[in-house]
Amino acid sequence: MEAATVVAAPIPAADAAAKALEKKLLDLELPPFPAPAKKAAAKVVAAAPKKKLAGGAGGYVLEDVPHLTDYLPNLPSFPNPLQNHPAYSVVKQYFVNADDTVAKKIVVHKGSARGTHFRRAGPRQRVFFQPDEVSAAIVTCGGLCPGLNTVIRELVCGLHDMYGVTSVVGIEGGYRGFYARNTVELTPRSVNGIHKRGGTVLGTSRGGQDTGKIVDSIQDRGINQVYIIGGDGTQKGAATIHAEVQRRGLKCAVVGVPKTIDNDIAVIDRSFGFDTAVEEAQRAINAAHVEAESAENGVGVVKLMGRNSGFIAMYATLASRDVDLCLIPESPFYLEGKGGLLEFAEKRLRENGHMVIVVAEGAGQDVIARSMRLADAHDASGNKVLLDVGLWLCAKIKDHFKKKANFPITLKYIDPTYMIRAVPSNASDNVYCSLLAHSAIHGAMAGYTGFTVAPVNGRHAYIPFYRITEKQNKVVITDRMWARVLCSTNQPCFLSTEDVEKAGQDDEEPIVPLVEGENSLVKAPPLLANAGDGAALCNGAA
Ligand SMILES: Nc1ncnc2c1ncn2[C@@H]1O[C@H](COP(=O)(O)OP(=O)(O)OP(=O)(O)O)[C@@H](O)[C@H]1O
Ligand SMILES: O=P(O)(O)OC[C@H]1O[C@](O)(CO)[C@@H](O)[C@@H]1O
Ligand SMILES: [Mg+2]
User: Fold this and answer.
1) What's the N-to-C CA distance of the chain in angstroms?
2) Could you tell which of 206, 228, 259, 265 is best to mutate to test the pocket of ligand 1, judged by most ligand atoms within 8 Å of the CB?
3) Beta-carbon contacts of residue 225 (< 8 Å; ≥ 6 apart)
4) pLDDT per position as a tens digit, 364-398
5) For the chain, what percentages of helix, strand and coil (3-state, to nearest 5) are there?
6) Which residue owns the Cα nearest ligand 2 atom 8?
7) Which atom of ligand 1 is nearest to the CA of 469?
8) Within 6 Å (CB) of ligand 1, which residues are found?
9) Residue closest to 59 by CA, chosen among 119, 127, 105
10) Average model confidence (pLDDT) across the chain
11) φ, ψ for residue 463 (rounded to 5)?
12) Is 15 marked active-site?
């Protein structure tokens, strides 16, 4: 049977790109590998994070967030209007205790230190803004993510319904909208129903982060609460805005709401929209499976988002159970030779007659760059522009089987990357977004600033910006979750002992020494073979 490639919209452009890529791959006269282009210098003021740490008994550490009174000591406070709110006044213990904190690590050992804690999110007895004094602004930055509109809606409605705030504006088109665009008035009426739509009603962008101009705009417009919804880059920008607001002595709370479809923000449990994205990815995987099953030696390849972190691919694989091979940025792989991807594909096709491959867009970038000898390119925010691993992989697989006698394959490529992030959020993400927005509002009203709000071990917490931005959240390939994936797909793990050691170096928590029969297997199995040998960690397991 003839091998075929199906690429999702826009079909003509993608088809042309696929052909061009295939031609490049097969071209042996490659130009010399050029020096990587220098990353464009970010036009931002570097934030100097001032850590607010407090110690306690038993190795307890509170990594606290800034408060407006840190630099405006004489700010008056007022009773929280929620005390008289018909809905909330009947709730027993509605206000959180002043010293409630949330533990970062909840699995502890007898005698281990209590460790890092964050300030618990929620309404306080006293607030530092009168409702009619608040002038709030909301901005969305970076890529799209299901749930952006829900967060916007709940910020507007929450400010209005809980605290009686009526002055809320939207900043259009991301950070640059602060100084390049007019604001748009947001009312409960104007945002009603937007949670049923994908995208962001405010628009978004990358680049254009000019801290000086943004804070000028905040100051000129008299904005005193800024809600900044965005990913790791956005939160770094928010940190610089907060630093500048504080330097100018403005009474303005700067609040980050973490958004990332890739789930690459550290510390937090998961990001909003992630659930929806995984659910949507199932539809593409199902389609790939149906196509693959219906053809002789059918191969379905699905590319999912995940620039540096392969969480969507990992969870979509685990949820689907139809996937034979999951490739993520954190786990290097190789194609040729014993234990390589092509050998595995051949084996799986001989056994099952079809296979499904899920590949995160950031997987295998080094391998592709080497084979194509391409230079690095970056987007307006300084993020690396990725090479299309999906098209590359399809070309390699097709090429491999073309050379095999009596082994025709039918390959279908599905690229739903933008489809999974453009959909509206599902029910559980909608609830999550609402709580997130409410926690953000309570924090700002209580005078906290310079923080990101998110669940940590199931409890909402206020986390200092530096904690969120110092490191990206990545799939730990030496962790149980990735082992579960390997066990479910029975794919090779491709790792050398060196790779495993390197992966272990990033582990944040010290590894507890293994005690045979307690926290380790009684008899350690031969874990991994050398690269090139490629024996799977979980091959043969159920
Ligand atoms: N180090 C930084 N300091 C200040 N601003 C930054 C920094 N990195 C990125 N930004 C700004 O933050 C905004 C969003 O950044 P970026 O495009 O990287 O998306 P993101 O917030 O990381 O979201 P995602 O990656 O999930 O799409 C851009 O306007 C960008 O200029
Ligand atoms: O094409 P855009 O809008 O720059 O976004 C693509 C990137 O945005 C994300 O969705 C979020 O960072 C990544 O998964 C993806 O690489
Ligand atoms: Mg990012």
Assistant:
1) 32
2) 206
3) 129, 134, 135, 136, 137, 252, 253, 255, 444
4) 998 888 777 666 788 998 998 888 999 999 999 99
5) 35, 15, 45
6) 143
7) 1
8) 42, 44, 141-143, 174-175, 206-209, 230-234, 236-237, 240, 260, 381-383
9) 105
10) 86
11) -120, 130
12) no
CATH of segment(s) 53-271+425-469 = 3.40.50.450
Kindly give the interhelix angle for 427-445 and 274-293, rounded to the nearest 10 degrees.
Answer: 160
- Residue 379: burial class (beta carbons within 10 Å; 0-12, 13-18, 19+): middle
The model's pTM: 0.86
- The reply to whether domains 53-271+425-469 and 274-421+476-505 share a CATH topology is yes
% residues pLDDT > 90 (the chain): 74
Report how far apart, in Å, the C-alpha atoms of 148 and of each of 8, 202, 425 are: 25, 9, 8
Domain boundaries, the chain: 53-271+425-469, 274-421+476-505
pLDDT tens string 69-81: 999 999 999 999 9
Q: Which residues are annotated as a binding site?
A: 143, 206-207, 231-234, 260-262, 305-307, 361, 418-421
* 124 Cα–ligand 3 center, Å: 32
What DSSP state is assigned to residue 265?
B
Task: Output the CA 235–ligand 1 centroid distance in Å.
Answer: 7
**CATH of segment(s) 274-421+476-505:** 3.40.50.460
Two tokens, residue 254: 């700067």
**Marked catalytic residue, from 64, 210, 262, 264:** 262
Per DSSP bridges, beta strands 168-171 and 253-258 are: unpaired
For 292-311, how does the pLDDT look when each residue is reduced to its tens digit (9 = 90+)? Answer: 999 999 999 999 999 999 99
